[in-house]
Structures are given as structure tokens and as C-alpha cells.
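wait is this the right file?? whatever heres the structure
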């Protein structure tokens, strides 16, 4: 969950600027569970760091995709977050993002031509 814009990846270099901090990596064999976990982390970001992304998702009824995946039997909507950096501790979404710093800062690994329009 890095370099997230409010636009689809398919917009390429014409996508809106990155709007979220580097949240981390999630993995699962269950596509619905991991998508739900990603959205929960966005909703739990501190200091409105995910506000623009949440507004875009909600204005486009983006969460409907997750409920439809469940209707189609594409996975489970429940998940467990396991922090592999802390002895496989089970954590909540808010605990997972509690130390995430608000804002996005470009570096040599996450700057893309045309995408990061600095204001």
C-alpha cells in the first residue's frame, strides 16, 4: 500500500498525485479479505491521511465492489492482521497504522514522471 492516488493505476503518468503515506504491505490467499483489510487501513489512517482516497471511493460507490465479491463467493470479508515484525502479533487496523506519518514524501524510489505534481 504505497503511492496510492485517487485515480486508477490505468491512468499511468496522468493520474492524480499520490495522496496517502506509505502504509505497508499486506498479503493473503483471499483476495476479498486482503481488499477489505486494505480499505480498513485507509479508513484508520491518522490525521485524515486517507481522506481524499476515502472520499473518492465513497463518491464512486467503490465499496460495492467488495460486497459484490462476497456475493459472488470470491472470498471472505473477515480477516486477521498479523504483524510479522512483532512476533506474529494479532493486531487491529488502527494498531497497524498508528505509527504511519501523515502525508506523502517523494524519494528516489517512489517518484513517477507526471504523477507527482507538487503544489
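ok assuming it is, sequence goes like this
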Amino acid at each position: 500500500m504505497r503511492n496510492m492516488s485517487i485515480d486508477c493505476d490505468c491512468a499511468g503518468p496522468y493520474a492524480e498525485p499520490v495522496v496517502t503515506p506509505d502504509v505497508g504491505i499486506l498479503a493473503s490467499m483471499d483476495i476479498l479479505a486482503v481488499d477489505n483489510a486494505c480499505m480498513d487501513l485507509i479508513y484508520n489512517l491518522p490525521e485524515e491521511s486517507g481522506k481524499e482516497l476515502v472520499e473518492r471511493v465513497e463518491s464512486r460507490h467503490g465499496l460495492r465492489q467488495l460486497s459484490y465479491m462476497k456475493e459472488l463467493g470470491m472470498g471472505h470479508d473477515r480477516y486477521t492482521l498479523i504483524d510479522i515484525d512483532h512476533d506474529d502479533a494479532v493486531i487491529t487496523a488502527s494498531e497497524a497504522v498508528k505509527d504511519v506519518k501523515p502525508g506523502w514524501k517523494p524519494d528516489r524510489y517512489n517518484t513517477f514522471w507526471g504523477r507527482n505534481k507538487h503544489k
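The CA atoms of residues 26 and 38 lie 7 Å apart. so i think its the right one actually
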